[in-house]
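We include the pair:
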Amino acid sequence: MKTYIQVFLTFARNSLVRDLSFRTNFLLQCVTSISWAIMNWAFFKIIFAQGKNIAIGKGTGWTENEFFIFLGTVWIINAIVQTFFMPNAQEFSELIRTGNLDFALLKPIDTQFLVSFPRMNWASLANFFLGVVVVAFYANVLTHEAVNPLSLSVLQVFLYVVFIGAGVVIMYSVMISLAATSVWLGRNQNLYMIWFYLTNFYRYPMEIYQRGVIGWGLWGFFSFVVPVLVVANVPARTLAQPLRESGGNRWENWLILLLFTMALVSLLVSRRVFRWALSSYRSASS
């Protein structure tokens, strides 16, 4: 474990040095990421200006302040994934195409670990800090509401962090599984597009899918097959407590169990898919 931590820290340091070697580009990336997030926030502010429940639906509990805690949670998870995993998933197909994966296979360290962390895009962390600010701000607003104020405890904040970690595990598992298909597909240049389409569903509270045959179908698929819906929903619900007026319901506990179950299952499945892909790999010299 000590060796893996040292290797990870070396990768992190080298990536930071590389990014800061081009400081103007680094700052522009940070500004671009933050600008996108602010425009996203402004878009939902405009929607909520039309009515408190118009964005999510009446009776769901996700009114404006609760929803922005959800949105900040999505930014936090996205920033972590885009910082640590996205650059390496995109690079995996190049390792196969150029034959450099041969050198990774020869290293005395787990191959999946080695290809998952060598490059980190530190500029993407700008949205992480912005997400933390947004979550903290709107949580503070909810705790000072005149009617039924939010009551937060240290345990809830701790669980929020733990649930985000479990959500990141699911996102990583989906991403590394998609990247592993490059072994069979060659240059998987559509990886980011597929990733974007899949993860676009987790950017909203799951209640919006619980309507109609198509909606319930999407809810089931993205909760149990590709379980991206629980990634942001569980931590955001823990902190924002959208159903606190009605005392919540037992489904909240089942969601927590579902999150941890899917995190474990996703990690095991992604590991199996990655090893299966490597067994089909033929080196550049073969």
